[in-house]
Amino acid sequence: MRFLFEDYALDTDRRELHRATDVIVVTPQVFDLLDYLIRNRERVVSKDDLIDAVWNGRIVSDAALTTRLNAARSAIGDTGEKQRLIKTLPRKGFRFVGAVQEAQRPAIEPVGSAAQTGDTPPRLSIVVLPFANLNGDPEQDYFVDGVTESLTTDLSRIGGLFVIARNSAFSYKGKAVDVRQIGREFDVRYVLEGSVQRNGNRLRVNVQLVDAGTATHLWAERFDKPVADLFDMQDEIVSRLANTLDAQLIVAEARRAERSLHPQCDGLVLPRPGLVDEGVYP
Description:
Helix content: 25-40%
CATH topology of the largest domain: Rossmann fold
Distance between the termini: 40 Å
Radius of gyration: 20 Å
Number of strands: 13
Order of helices and strands: EEEEHHHEEEEEHEHHEEEH
CATH superfamily of the largest domain: ABC-type transport auxiliary lipoprotein component
Number of helices: 7
Largest sheet: 6 strands, mixed
CATH class of the largest domain: Alpha Beta
């Protein structure tokens, strides 16, 4: 389904927001918020409605909700002052007030279908392994497992990406793993693994994206943040990871396709994506 308003298009099949021919990058939660508001544009939706739809009923601070609403408005050229498209009704909720047209996407087989053929893993297929709790503190397990589970959920929303279910992946919790064996067992091309460490009021999360066929690290990132609201921090980490992984998986697939077309280049060392995002570190 494509929702058309002004010069924007929200493509729910591809989970993309377009302005004319440009793709506007938004986090999964901001996309879900826009999707929910537009689908329910005939009524006012409450804060609780949004939390149930976007955060699955988890406890979320007003500041976190306001931040996502501001991001949604910014993505579609709106502001809290103008409220041209997303209107806030004090003590009642929110409503998408822009004129919307709906258009169906042609029923064609998408590139990157999760269907499996022969021994070749599905294109853009991944398993998120349980993140390691480096502190060894059982009280931190709930947060560490929450990061893993939320990231699995958000990645599953990326169009064309086949993601192994959480319950299957958690069978490897606390175990030493061979990513090649994991790739064969789950029949996936990519493995995401990571760790969480807490030191006082600081929290560090490390993640690595690995090619399951070659055990090659394709991308790595580190998040180093103060411990404040754990749920808000988890939402930020998951949103940034899911958004970045979407781009990194596309890059990895492009390189895989290039190698298949030019096998003589298979031994060349390709430049790796940057390991540090200047905007992440304090």
